[in-house]
Amino acid sequence: MTATTERTHNRAKTPASNLQVNLDYLAPHLLGRWKDLRLIARNFARDPRIIRDPHLGMDEHRERVFNQLSILVSEAQVLRAFPEHLGGKDDAGGGIAGFEELLAADPSLQIKAGVQWGLFCAAIHHLGTPEQHDRLLQPAMNLTVPGAFAMTEIGHGSDVASIATTATYDEETQEFIINTPFRAAWKEYLGNAALHGTAAIVFAQLITQGVNHGVHAFYVPIRHTTKKGRAGTLLPGVSSEDDGLKGGLNGIDNGRLAFDNVRIPRHDLLARYGSVAADGTYTSPIESPGRRFFTMLGSLVQGRVSLDGAAGVASKIALTTAITYGNQRRQFTSTNDTDETVLLDYQTHQRRLLPLLAEVYAGHFAHDRLLDLFHAVFSEEGMDTPDSREDLETLAAALKATSTWRALHTLQTAREACGGAGFMAENRLVQLRQDLDIYVTFEGDNTVLLQLVGKRLLTDYAKQFKNIDGINMARFVVERTADTVLYKTPLNRAVQTILDTGSKRRSAAELRDEETQRELLADRVETMVEELANALRPAQKMSQQDAANLFNTHQTELVEAAKAHADLIQWEAFTKALDDIEDHDARMILTWVRDLYALHTIEQNLAWYLINGRLSAQRAETVTSYIDRLLLRLRPHAQNLIDAFGFDETLVRATLLTGIEQRRQNESREYYRQQRARGDAPLHEKTTKKAAH
Amino acid sequence: MTATTERTHNRAKTPASNLQVNLDYLAPHLLGRWKDLRLIARNFARDPRIIRDPHLGMDEHRERVFNQLSILVSEAQVLRAFPEHLGGKDDAGGGIAGFEELLAADPSLQIKAGVQWGLFCAAIHHLGTPEQHDRLLQPAMNLTVPGAFAMTEIGHGSDVASIATTATYDEETQEFIINTPFRAAWKEYLGNAALHGTAAIVFAQLITQGVNHGVHAFYVPIRHTTKKGRAGTLLPGVSSEDDGLKGGLNGIDNGRLAFDNVRIPRHDLLARYGSVAADGTYTSPIESPGRRFFTMLGSLVQGRVSLDGAAGVASKIALTTAITYGNQRRQFTSTNDTDETVLLDYQTHQRRLLPLLAEVYAGHFAHDRLLDLFHAVFSEEGMDTPDSREDLETLAAALKATSTWRALHTLQTAREACGGAGFMAENRLVQLRQDLDIYVTFEGDNTVLLQLVGKRLLTDYAKQFKNIDGINMARFVVERTADTVLYKTPLNRAVQTILDTGSKRRSAAELRDEETQRELLADRVETMVEELANALRPAQKMSQQDAANLFNTHQTELVEAAKAHADLIQWEAFTKALDDIEDHDARMILTWVRDLYALHTIEQNLAWYLINGRLSAQRAETVTSYIDRLLLRLRPHAQNLIDAFGFDETLVRATLLTGIEQRRQNESREYYRQQRARGDAPLHEKTTKKAAH
Known about the structure:
Two copies of one chain form a homodimer.
Chain A: H1 3-13, H2 23-31, H3 35-44, H4 58-74, H5 92-101, H6 107-127, H7 130-141, E1 147-150, E2 166-170, E3 175-179, E4 187-190, E5 199-208, E6 211-221, E7 223-225, E8 231-234, E9 238-242, E10 255-259, E11 262-265, E12 275-276, E13 282-283, H8 289-298, H9 302-326, E14 330-331, E15 341-342, H10 347-379, H11 386-417, H12 419-423, H13 429-436, H14 446-461, H15 504-512, H16 514-536, H17 544-552, H18 555-579, H19 584-604, H20 606-611, H21 617-634, H22 638-643, H23 649-652, H24 660-678, E16 683-684, H25 685-692
Parallel strand pairs in A: 1-5, 2-5
Antiparallel strand pairs in A: 2-3, 3-11, 4-10, 5-6, 7-8, 9-10, 12-13, 14-15
């Protein structure tokens, strides 16, 4: 019996239900808008040349991953986002969709590719001029020039505006002089910096004619290229250090860079948003330095977008392993005397895994919407407006923070649900978790990202909050746009307390109601933002110091409001996605999954609903009991619901998914059957004692 | 300036408070009963021969750790628990105390030592007869015989009673025949099994005269010993497989063992709790097979006890790094224009780290009590009774589950609080987390352990619940013992709703009150157990199948009740420990820490208190605002509170603790100071624009 038939077999034995998830319908449906690209990428992620060898040490892993990049180049997908005349497809969304699936092969390969094409090339693409595209982009795209993305400095992680590297214009030679003034200004944690990069996009304070025009990006060669086309010795004035061993992603050569009076030609300032004339005169199409800075940074949002998708892939892989194993593994004596109970029939096991399955579905549909918006901004005519960009950035920040934390939690829960087997590298959960760990703080620390989201909610609520933290609040101020469903909360809606009824049955029915769920989730965001706005209102009349202190005492609430907003976004996306599901059974079952997502979210914040009088004590108890009912209802469908994401044995590559557990059970069952048939099973001491009595 | 003086320096700059934690008093006080042994062990954990080399691959790491064991032998501490006439000290508690501290050197070394002395030797010690001690213990103690502890089977992780390996007595030859009947019965995840072990304690069903007397332990040689004293080829009939790479603890050679008609002499059944005469007659000092089984397993409780302590050490190391760094690292502009804000001054940062600090203190004092009880049972005259053993097992299960999950959460939170630096192996957080991962499922899966605790609570509540889960409930039934403070809840106390008052100030004052805290925490356990007992009562009159189903639908609540019990235990231990603190300031400040622990615990379960009418909505809000006040009050003492545990730079060995961040800041501050002094700092574009207007 193959592993697949065993999984089907086990599924058939689960309690009957009148409804069935039709995998032939749901699996292709979930692949979404870039279905073909995802399927191609997944096939690629099965390629033995591409998949991770879990046993490699750091040095060998780095070398393997670097060599894998060349294989990626010959696959057109990694170049899809780039201009057509340079070999791309002008297809931003499709590029990300294919990229996300690469995680199944090896997160190190994915992130190394992300450094090369998603950061190094993308910076040239988004921050460079057409002339610079023609000159610099192709060698970068085809890997003739492996590059680093030198933004972060040791001294300033998330605070890019404060970096200390300088690029000072020298009119005499028409060059920029790149300098690292002190140790804290070293560029840090850069992929391709320790070994493989021959150039870097270096972010530095642009200084010309005695004026600092803020952070700009510069194309800076850092190493010679050897005759074999590999990175050679460092160029004069460039220093590099190796970050060495990390908690994960050890296939990437992260390192540090510093510059000591390194001169680059004037035309290698990436000049789309700011340029310097021969005489040193600075000009920019964007007048405000603040808006210019955030426009530049915003054009690099694709990192966050793709991490949201990649984190979703990791969570799906984790649950595929844990749910499949939970459907096969038996432990502790059952009451039918021969077979022990399957893990997923235990309530605690359902409680651990099924709400996460609902979360992963919610995250999946929200990511589809994020990718739609991303594609519109970067590849659809007329959609690239300051407003749509800011909406995109807010949505990406909220979802990236949510999905990367979720991935860590899901991987860990799955590993624990698989017991000791989950700890073995061959089942991939531990190494995936090690690799994904950094996702929660890179491309924007999650806590910082959620503060940005929270500030956006506040500025949406009232423009007078431009300066609440005494710093650069203005940067987050945007006009309201037409499309509000995803990233706006209906802040002007009156808060309504839901009336409770005496009947528990009635309560459960109401919690199942879509409008009730929306109201409970939206109300929480609205109320939290409103309360926060009221609490911060006095800041307007305070000194900068006092305002900052006041803001700090509400920082936790700000983050909580952003999380509540992310919850709502995902619920909205899930609910909207239900409309598109044409298969009746799939729609019904996914509606239960959506209900589970809603109630699980509400349950996690139950105290808030009680304190704020949105749920009575009686209704609050119903939340938990209705979740219990949903778990029982969904339990028979758990295997199909996770299989529908299409991460089969060949993608997950976990020994546990090879049917090994089932074979062992069959063998032991047969052993005892034969023993009974022969009649030579030993008596148990207890039995003999009972007989003696 | 050395790292230490920098830390002190920074401390001095934190907001003033009239109280100060006197480190000279608190640090030695916290070392507790086995202070000298802990200090010796810590010194040992600084030895360059002993500490982990983070860069070693699996094979090299395994070899290094094996060789380190010999160094441990020459240090007497690992042998303390063993009989004095064999070179030990009959000092169970002291042995564990020293062992726990070894984690700072390398968790692989600690667990490898745990396999050799805490499992292999301890099994001979606790399950063997005096004759067997004299014959088998010394070669095991001095590492002439490295050994595996072959209990777990692939097919039965936490369910030891169901293992399938057999030991069948052969009267003809007076031998036991050890057999692995099928693949699922292979012994799995055993340290020393893949490479280094030459013998194993094998747990198998003892069958003699056609009767299975249940699980017993057998001493089974598995490999030849080479002339150089290392493990050679496998003995006939023994098979071994290597588990290979794991998520962590890769310094240990975990592997599998199987036995094909391996014969061992009759006298190598470890015979303290059951022996077989030459003619095959089985006798045991314990009549009931169930009680016999649990007595044997219970004698191995030290694994859980020591993991509780080791997990505490890991959490202390994690917080030492994160709090020290949080006190030095500055990020985002402050309002005073020159220095940025120190991370630990941000509310979100305080919220992430300080409640964990309170938890770690609570866990610390609870562990002290656990170790006291452990020492009493195993090394004090007349204390080894069935009751005290069961109390010990319950307490160990509750605390091991709590502290190991806490360690993972703390390590991860600390790693995130250190940003990218936290992800670097040189700061140790990621590798410690990788190593500690398995702690939550080995030596008893935490979820299973909490169910055992929950069942114990139920049986304490009412004896009629002997059979609630239709299985072996009897095993958890115990008589109530005299010492109830730690592991008993005052179940008979009437539930009292605390009266709310109109004044918020009054409410906060009440939450600070020790009796209020105790009542809130104890009431939750009592009520949950009572409700659970009522819900399960019908099971008595049900079929076994229906009873099992009913039990399953309340499994989550059972686990929740056990967690609430663990919370209360730790609060009680913390509160009791306050009495012993003679320094006034330290006692005051630790009382705030205890309050934070209580309120943080209550806040995490706030919905329960609201639903059950124990807190009004108004009072519930006060919980959070009082926590905020405690955070501000404790923030200036955070560094001293974590330093008091004594895990200094030389034990933590994180680059972040070398003062590197402070030096970088000093350098950049000086750079800008000189620039200003010279008057050659560039103007900012914003400034020039303002000037132009």
